[in-house]
Q: What sequence folds into this?
């Protein structure tokens, strides 16, 4: 057995407690409500955001549109921040939670939408939002609250004859093709009537402000929820290249391929478009915020910290190999110090059509690492800040040097499980799953690698 300590249950319990505690502390520090309080202040009827002043009484109507996994938590915290002006806001909130469990003011229409694939609720949310925004005038203010997952939770194709079944199939193919999120959303933007800046176009006359909870790489904010309120830097030709590069022409329904190939397909609005002349944007938090919060917690527990997010959007295999090697290098340079390597962002997983398992990229990453750390004094946590990993109920997993042996004892072959993308059942059976439930947040994924 390799490592400075025998991997006894008591020893591992302490180390696992540290890893999970770091993760949970980071989530707690990154609560959307806390970020909203810092970003939005209302004094004497004037809402101030990043130096911009909005005299709320001067607007005829106050409109609100919230999309994404954090839509309800962002809406609740925003309404708290604006205080007495809250009852004036009317609008649409698209959520994945059952609306009956989430009471909001009557002037806000709460619709249950789909994720990771659009549902009828997603189409209803798009229709209601477009109707609302088309009614906006120059005397109105529109507040957009955008978080990750919004791409599937509000959808309407540019060709309204495309069925929900074909829309859902298109989204599934994109999620499973192995493309980075920005590439996936380039395609979505050029098929959709609500993405790629088109919500801003619908509300062109009004003053607009968008508050983001970002789950996309730094500098790619127009990919967040497929950029419904931002100028789009990509083109129809870019979308067609993504389709070709990832073999999506063999997977997309024919009506969707016909739309993408149509010479009449309009370009999305670009920087300088009139729709953005009265627009402002503010990022509340992103994955760097999450990593910094984790680092602060780990440091307080006595770990020596390194943050390395250089493998963002890499394949899961390449990221696992790189991070495990980086951890070993850090430990070799500091053999007498407990090392904590923190990585935020997302990795990509290409799921073959024949795979029938249940899991997600975080659990797949953790299992890959479990093979590499078998018998070693190492721990790896990988989990989504939204509390849900892929098509499983787990947020992710926490594996250690005994996970591989425990899997064999339970009758599993890690290689077979990885091949079938069925990580959830193994990890749940051996007690290494992280079960959180939806957190109302979405700041991408967090990986915590420990070398005591």
A:
């Amino acid at each position: 057995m390799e490592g400075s300590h025998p991997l006894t249950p008591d020893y591992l319990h302490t180390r696992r407690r540290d890893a999970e505690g770091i993760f949970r502390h980071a989530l707690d520090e990154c609560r959307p409500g806390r970020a909203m309080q810092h970003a939005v202040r209302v004094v004497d009827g004037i809402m101030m955001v990043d130096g911009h002043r909005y005299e709320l009484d001067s607007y005829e109507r106050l409109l609100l549109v919230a999309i994404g996994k954090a839509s309800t938590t962002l809406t609740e915290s925003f309404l708290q921040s604006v205080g007495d002006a809250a009852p004036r806001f009317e609008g649409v909130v698209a959520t994945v939670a059952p609306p009956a469990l989430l009471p909001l003011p009557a002037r806000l229409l709460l619709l249950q939408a789909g994720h990771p694939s659009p549902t009828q609720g997603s189409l209803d949310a798009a229709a209601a939002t477009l109707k609302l925004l088309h009614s906006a005038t120059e005397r109105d203010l529109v507040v957009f609250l955008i978080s990750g997952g919004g791409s599937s939770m509000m959808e309407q194709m540019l060709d309204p004859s495309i069925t929900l079944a074909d829309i859902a199939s298109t989204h599934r193919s994109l999620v499973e093709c192995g493309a980075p999120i920005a590439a996936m959303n380039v395609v979505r933007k050029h098929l959709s009537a609500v993405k790629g800046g088109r919500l801003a176009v619908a509300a062109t006359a009004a003053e607009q402000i968008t508050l983001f909870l970002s789950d996309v790489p730094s500098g790619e904010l127009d990919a967040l929820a497929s950029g419904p309120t931002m100028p789009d830097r990509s083109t129809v030709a870019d979308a067609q290249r993504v389709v070709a590069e990832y073999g999506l022409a063999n997977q997309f329904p024919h009506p969707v391929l016909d739309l993408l190939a149509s010479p009449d397909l309009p370009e999305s609005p670009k920087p300088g478009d009139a729709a953005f002349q009265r627009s402002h944007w503010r990022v509340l938090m992103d994955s760097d915020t999450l990593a910094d919060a984790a680092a602060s917690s780990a440091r307080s527990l006595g770990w020596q910290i390194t943050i390395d997010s250089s493998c963002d959007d890499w394949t899961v295999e390449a990221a696992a190999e790189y991070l495990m090697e980086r951890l070993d290098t850090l430990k070799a340079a500091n053999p007498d110090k407990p090392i904590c390597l923190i990585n935020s962002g997302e990795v990509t997983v290409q799921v073959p059509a024949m795979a029938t398992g249940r899991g997600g990229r975080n659990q797949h990453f953790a299992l890959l690492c479990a093979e590499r750390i078998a018998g070693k004094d190492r721990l790896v946590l990988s989990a989504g800040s939204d509390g849900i990993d892929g098509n499983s109920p787990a947020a992710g997993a926490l594996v250690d040097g005994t996970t591989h042996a425990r899997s064999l004892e339970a009758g599993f072959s890690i290689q077979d499980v990885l091949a079938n993308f069925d990580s959830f059942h193994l990890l749940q059976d051996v007690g290494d799953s992280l079960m959180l439930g939806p957190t109302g947040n979405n700041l991408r994924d967090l990986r915590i690698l420990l070398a005591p």
